[in-house]
Amino acid sequence: YKTLNKSKLNHTIMHISIGCFDYTFNYLPLTHQFHTYWSKAFYLFNKFNLVKRHHYIKRSFELISKLGFGSVQIMCQDPKQMPFNGSQLNKLCGNLDLKTSSIGGYVDILASDWIKFKEIVDYTRKINTNIICVHSGTPKKNQDNWRLFKDRFTDLIDYAGSYDIRIALENSPFNLVKTEKDLIKATKLIPGLFINLDFGNLNLVSKNIPNTIIKLKKYIIHVHAKDSINKKGNFYFPEIGQGTVPFKECIKNLKKINYKGPMVIEYEGNNNPLLDFDLLFFVSNIKNLNSLNF
Q1: Is 160 in contact with 122 (CB distance < 8 Å)?
Q2: Sign of CA dihedral 233, 238, 243, 248
Q3: Counting beta carbons within 10 angstroms of the beta carbon of residue 66, is it exposed (0 to 12), middle (13 to 18) or buried (19 or more)?
Q4: 115-154, pLDDT tens digit by residue?
Q5: What is residue 99's three-state secondary structure?
Q6: SS3 label, residue 293
Q7: Both ends of the chain: CA-CA distance in Å?
Q8: pLDDT at site 219
């Protein structure tokens, strides 16, 4: 923390991640939301100058390694904008004894930019991971969203599967697949589809997340352990333990289904990146996570 150049805060915010197996740390560009990703999570967002990203990301990798973090999850919405190619990234991680757990390919599959998915798969092939986490896309008027979703995801899964890469669909209240019912429908529609279950997102539209874990145990290969609150349609994402997600029951059921995949603790703050930068949030999440005994 002392090595950070605070004068760069107008360009970046610091994301700190903690996990029971691995620790990660990264820089992200200034955004309206703050996320803390736990266990094998490092997101590279593509919103500032490529040269700066190369510099900051390299420094971030070096710092997380020095801090004892073990792996990274990389966000890739457009491979052409990534500051490192596959071999460079593998070399950087290898030199720092870091692993890559998955790629975050969060592009809108129901919009025109869905064509980037195959490029993301091609990029993932060059990296030492076999999971791509995705959203279901934003529903559009005057189109059959579920038909389009099925057609495009089937095509994507067939292509990714030919390279032994698995696609993990994340539920979101802002996308087509929101609820447990939607997740079940999606897995029945598309053979070979897996799930990245986001606790906080599901909590905004459902109150029985532990039961969902049991129902979808065959498909869950990735988890976002995020807290949330739904106040009359207004969504809030506080630190772990301050929302209404029943974490103890969720963790209990993850153990029950013998879940062994990545666990990402995601913290979305109060839209004030400078405040969210405060390490008090980091310390608070450590204490709350320790109490879960995962």
Answers
A1: no
A2: positive
A3: exposed
A4: 889 999 999 999 888 999 999 999 999 899 999 999 999 9
A5: strand
A6: coil
A7: 27
A8: 98
